[in-house]
Amino acid sequence: MRIMGLDVGDKRIGVAISDEKGIISTPLKVIKNDENSGEEIKKIVDKYDIKKIIIGIPYTLKGETGMQARKVFDFTDNVIKNLGVDVDYIDERYTTKIPSGYLRKNAGTKKMGSKKTDAKEIDKFSAGIILADYLEKKRKRVSNES
């Protein structure tokens, strides 16, 4: 079963997908967060036969639901829940820091260069980390149940 991970921001949405066995997370792309984002996500859901979407929630450092988290919940209610797939959430408080640190260290790679490119790469890899975290937690639950 393929699973999709989303990092929903005000301007862009990072997208990652799992392999068919739901083991490996791969950053896929970045789409604009606009009136067409639901259609773009639907195309990916259909193309890859996605059965579940994991959405990162940017809780505050205190673990509370702040303004940005409410925006993500609203996006989910208005766009994602209409797609007919299961939805789950994961805490994403630190996911942007991980890829931005990595990308800064590797700024010499051919994909780097402009702040716009860097931001898109960060969004895509953040979605990958959100999905990877979910898949790892799922593996641990299954392992503990055995």
Whole-number total of structural domains: 1
Strand content: 15-25%
- Give the N-terminus to C-terminus distance in angstroms: 20 Å
CATH architecture: 2-Layer Sandwich
- Integer average pLDDT: 86
Largest sheet properties: 5 strands, mixed
Structural class: alpha/beta
Q: H/E series, N to C?
A: EEEHEHEHH
Rough outline? globular
Would you mind describing this structure in some detail?
The protein has four helices and five strands. With 146 residues, it is of the alpha/beta class. The protein has one domain: YqgF/RNase H-like domain (Nucleotidyltransferase, domain 5, 2-Layer Sandwich). A hairpin with a 6-residue loop joins strand 2 and strand 3. Helix 3 crosses helix 4.
Per-chain topology:
Blueprint: E1 2-8, E2 12-18, E3 25-32, H1 37-48, E4 50-57, H2 67-80, E5 86-91, H3 97-105, H4 115-145
Parallel strand pairs: 1-4, 4-5
Antiparallel strand pairs: 1-2, 2-3
